[in-house]
Amino acid sequence: MKNGFWIFVAVFVALGGSWCGFVLAPEMQLGGAKQTTILNSSDVYPVGRPGEANQGLSVYRANGCAACHTEQVRQTGIACSVVLTDVGKNPQAMTNLISSLVLTSLTKEDADAASAKITVAGGKTEIHIAATGPDIARGWGMRRSVAEDYLYDQPVQLGRLRAGPDLANAGARADANWQLLHLYAPKSVVKGSTMPPFRYLFEVRKIGREPSPDALKLPSEFAPPAGYEVVPKPEARELAAYLLSLRATVPLYSAPISP
Amino acid sequence: MTVNEMKTPDARAETPDPKIDASLRVPLLALFGGAAFWLVVSSVLAMIASIKFHAPDFVAHCPWLTYGRVQPAADDALLYGFCIPAGLGVALWLFAQLGQAPLRGAIVPAVAAKLWHLGVLVGLAGILSGNSTGFAWLEFPRAGSVILFFAYLLLALWAMMNFAARRERALYPSHWFLVAAVFWFPWIYSTANLFLVAWPVRGVVQAIIGWWFAGNLLFVWLALVGIGTAFYFLPKFSGRPLQSYYLALFAFWTLILFGTWCGIPPGAPVPAWMPVLSSFAAVLTVVPVLAVAAIAWQTSRGGSDAPSLECGGDAPVAAPAPAGRAAPMPADGLVQQDKATRASHLPYGDGASPPRGFIRFGLLSFVLSSLMLIAMACPRISRVTEFTWFGPAQTQLQLYGFFAMTMFGAIYYLLPRAVGFELPFPKLARLHFWISVPGVVLLVLPLAIGGVEQGMKLNNLNLTFMDATKAMLPFLRTSTIGLLLILLGNSLFALNIFAMTFVWEKSLVKKAFAVVTAPLETEGETGSASASLRRDKEVQA
Predict the structure, then answer these.
(1) A chain contacts of residue B459, beta-carbon cutoff 8 Å
(2) Does the beta carbon of A165 lie under 8 angstroms from any beta carbon of chain B?
(3) Which pLDDT score is estimated for A87?
(4) A18, A138, A149 member nearest B465 (Cβ)
């Protein structure tokens, strides 16, 4: 390369190529995405978050929760099981047939084959699909995360490190009260938690004429001094609302599971 | 283009022109001074973040110092505060040296450097006050990024004008890497800011553009600048031309063609073609990485018979700069074969040369961190390492082990020439090297090993999540020691840079004072004043 112009051309070719591939093409494929329908249902997914939960996403962003938490569940595969719904006219023959078949932890093909054998013998079956993988087994979700799950997130907080557990389905695991206790004093609900407490999202104040109904019911070692109460600030409530809204459990065409 | 023509840059003799160095003095001090400051800030912030793994309650009442703000702030202070301005400064100097053209209108890049550091200040304050954009490596709020972008454009424009005005027309391999880097950043930075912050795209496309940006900035941009710099210094240190021109050309093309597609993790919740394409590109990136390794190996092999330039050599350090500078610098290629002559040209006398140690360590880290990056793009390995501390370990090795270390080497080499003084504390520069090497090892190694262990434990369903997290703690706590060493090393670097700036400013004041007072003095005193003026000028040169 003899002059600067050719270097510019090199940059243009190389970076322009990847710009088209990873900026333009994804935007054309996914940028106009709309809600999808849930598998075997007429309901649409996802629905927008309620206002408070939406505010909570900006609390989540502002405090960098994504530095330690991911919001994406991985899946290594699926396991199908064949469920007999009708034994047919000859229960004895069906029992014999079924005892000769493997009906759980199957691939889709094997499940279809087993189902076909039962159908031929006069029975009726349903095939149940479950996602597999360590994330699923840990209870972090029922299926892998897919692009549809993030349609209304602004900003999308996928995260890249699991210093803490995955939160893609945090809302399916705990209630608002637990979330607030966990934010104020993580060790009060999770023994040995390494999460830093977010005490600045709460107000420790003198109890007025009567205790606030919102005050946290903390175990004694985390409780404020007598006569004081811990009340969540609006940010804490919003963050808890956002965490409760994290729930990606419905079956989709791109990630089929049986409910 | 004939082979002969292409070989010219290697054989070029760089005549040391004091005007070239002097023209760069002010912008370089502005760029490196701020960079040294942010470097220390970054390690202080990283220390605060790391202490939270010893005591989660540490400064828990303070929203500005919560982990989720301090950690990205530390990362961004290192990347935007140190790496980019240091890289730009080194690039400015290299353009001027390779092209043998003094920088014109140096006040503009000097102001742009101050503007850049202002942008970093605004951005960091934004993150710590809770106004981060929430995108990795792009956390600076809009005000900060706009300032950074315009400051960069000014610096890039001046770098390109200097490049266009070069008197030595032939291009050296370092030129390709550095010119490409100059164009690279505005493209990726504007794309990311427009599509993520100004007019955000919808849904998971945000994450895809975020990965594209981070990959192009952290892997490609840093590699372009760092390798471009190393390709200038390697031949200088070893006295051998770059081995070889064609391999360097090959490394350049493969790096920008494949490296730019890396970054989308294999498990990402996006259409499958993207991670597949990205993994494929990452595997091909082995090619430029190995090419760089081969070039570095072949080029520095000649250095083994050169006089000991290693760090920690016990030869005298305080060789006066003017004496060293009076003799011609070793050219990129045809260096005088006489060892004694060569030794006398070295800026640190015939012994200690932190630049060489830093740049060699940087190249080693480049190869290792790139291989880690490539490994993480393989689906099988990614299943273990994704979402673990292996990722941060790779990033730290890339940012600090490779890029920052390479920049330290370059700055220790070029700043004394640009300013016209020997380093105020050359021994501290050597100490910096010997502190930061174990620092990087103690930071990266525990995180990498712990990350793999954490990943295997997370995939082992007999263990709870808490077991995996607990198993990580000793590794995280060990890495705090690494961070502490890095903080010490960075402070030594900053000390040298600040002292240098101070000495230079003092000499300016002295000179101005001499000029102002000279005409008013009697004849005898005028003589002594002009003598001191001459002395200053010598020092300046």
Answers:
(1) 134
(2) yes
(3) 85
(4) A138
